[in-house]
Design brief:
The protein is an alpha+beta fold. It is built from nine helices and 14 strands. The strands form four sheets. A five-stranded antiparallel sheet has the order 3-2-7-6-5. A five-stranded mixed sheet has the order 9-11-12-14-13, covered by helices on one side. Helix 1 runs antiparallel to helix 3 and helix 8 runs antiparallel to helix 9. The longest helix has about 55 residues.
Length: about 500
Amino acid sequence: MSIRFRLALFGLAVVTLTLAVFALLIFGLLAAAGSNEQDRQLAARAVDAVNALAVADADDFLPRRVLAPVDAAEAIDMFVVVLGPDGVPLSGTGEVDGVVPSIPGALLAAADADGEAIATIEPAPGVQLRIHVRPWTRPDLGLAGYAVAAQASRRVENDLQAGRVFVIAAATFAFLVAGAAIWLVIGRALRPLKQLAALTDEVGLTQDLSWRLPLPRAHDEVRQLSESFNGMLDRLQNANAQLADALESQQRFVADASHELRTPLTTIRSNAGFLIQHPDALPDDREAALRDIAGEGERMSRLVGDLLTLARADAGQHLDKAPVDLCALVGEVTRQAGGIHADRQIAAHTPAGDVTVPANADSLTQLLWILIDNAVRHTPDGGRVEVSVKRDRARVQLIVADDGEGIPETHLPHVFDRFFQADAARSGGGAGLGLAIARWIVEEHHGRIAAENNVFGGATLSVELPISASGWDSAGPGEDVSEQAPSPAASDAATPGSRG
């Protein structure tokens, strides 16, 4: 049994109970009004009869039978009976079974005492009369008696029966109309539930979580249900998208790892096989093979470390942050890089004082090493790498510029993509993951990173970090208070421009 049918039955039960109570009230009112109206009419007729007797001639008081009297056993017309002082009928316009009905003496005595009396009598089996008795007198004629107005009681019953038929017909019509209205209203009210069921089936069949329920205009429970269901679909769609992204990232990680690890593993396997097959190989050949194995092992270790870093990024790992002095960090990293790459000129240019940013010190150190290593890799011997820090009211700029071969214009949009290498032959053994990791670190710090070529032929990588922990301040860029960094090409030239 559907919920619509059950609700309709409940509504019809309420309507039926209401109509029954209403009908009973109507029947009671009709019965009371009918009896009162009959008594009022009988009283008025009795008064008219007394008034007529007051001016009647003496001959009119002689006992006589009226032609074609009202048969109270069959008709419901009102009639009048005139009685003498002893209750004997003098005349009457109505009869019961051909006889003028007799009036009980107790009722006549009550009329004498109260001036009127009203009661229901049964002059014959199955025949009830409602009567109103009033005494009359004619002192001028020495006569007295009683005027009785009577009417069959079934007149009220007939009126009640007519009212009963009308009320039942009206109640039946109201019941049918209410039933149809309830059915339609419930169907309209439950339409969103049907749409919800259909949408659920559609989503289950098509696996399409973009479907949404239309919201009713009324702000009721059905609208709340529709909004809740749409909100659930939003959350499911977001969760499904995140799951799809995670799966895609996992598949990309596996594919990238397989692709990049294939070459070092092949090299290691080949050199190991050579050493096994040629135990008497020349020392130089053995040393070269071992050197290749060690180099490829080191490269594979770096690659695995980079892939694990990106895998953690894809998994939603976030970095803990604390105030970090960027100038001190730049100075330390460039000092170490200058010692490692003695064949390059690596210089740092920072403003006076501290430049503190909310950051993860280890990740920021890794970012600096990635940018400097990238610049060194694409800079010839004797080339220059400049690391500079600029500060204004809302942001800090970290700029790493070199005077190397630069980046082809067509490759600029892709330099931060994973495994992208502008020139694999001159990549220095890199796997193309460093700048992808750098972009993740910058994004974790709510910053921006960009790459472009500078006027000296080399590349400039610029990072912008917010000074506030909550992101970029509403204040616009302030006056540059940093020291002007020399160019990679000449110490007295301007710092190469940066994108972003």
